[in-house]
Amino acid sequence: MSHWADVSPDDDDAEEGLVRPYTITHGRTASARDDLTLITVIATVAPDERPVDRGLQPEHRQILRQCRAPVALAEVAAGLNLPVAVTKILVGDLIALDRVTARPPLKVAAGQEADMSLLQAVKDALLRL
User: Fold this and answer.
1) What is the band of 116 on the pLDDT scale with cuts at 50, 70, 90?
2) Whether the model pTM is above 0.70
3) 16-70 pLDDT tens trace
4) What are phi and psi of 41, to 5 degrees?
5) What share of the chain is helix, strand, coil (3-state, %, to 5)?
6) Spatial distance between the Cα atoms of 52 and 111, rounded to a whole number of angstroms
7) Max CA-CA distance within the chain?
8) Which of 12, 33, 38, 55 sits at a 20 to 30 Å CA gap from 123?
9) Is the pLDDT score of 76 beyond 90?
């Protein structure tokens, strides 16, 4: 799968296999949720009796597979190879359908100092995205 930005919009041959991000989001350019950040933790809700993938786009299904274990939104976007803004919209769709949950990352326990080496590693990883 090629990245949405790997080809020039003027390249006619490249248009055949290219799906623009606004097509995936049905023309939406911003998430309806303002609480989704790069470090928001996304997790799939335990499946119940309803069909798992009925009516979902391939990107939605990929998010459900990727978030079986809690994952940061930035990692979901990287796994989809899509911009974070598009990923926020797709995750928002799944939250509205009660298919995933979103929560802020766990806070440092009261009275404890944050591990600065861990925070620096997260920062460095995000800058590499």
Assistant:
1) confident
2) no
3) 555 676 677 766 767 777 888 888 999 998 765 455 566 788 899 999 999 999 9
4) -95, 125
5) 40, 10, 55
6) 42
7) 59
8) 33
9) yes
Residue with structure tokens 């949950």? 101
The residues that bridge with 41 in the sheet, in sequence order, are 72, 103
Two tokens at 72? 């940061």
Torsion of CA 83, 29, 50, 43, to 10 degrees: 40
Instruction: For residue 103, give the 3-state DSSP assignment.
Output: strand
Distance from C-alpha of 2 to C-alpha of 20, rounded to nearest angstrom = 11
Q: How many residues does the chain have?
A: 129
Q: Residue 111: is it exposed, middle or buried by C-beta count within 10 angstroms (0-12/13-18/19+)?
A: exposed
Read off the amino acid at residue 66: Q
Closest of 54, 62, 34, 35 to residue 97, by C-alpha? 54
Q: What is the pLDDT of residue 4?
A: 47
- Residue type at 105? P
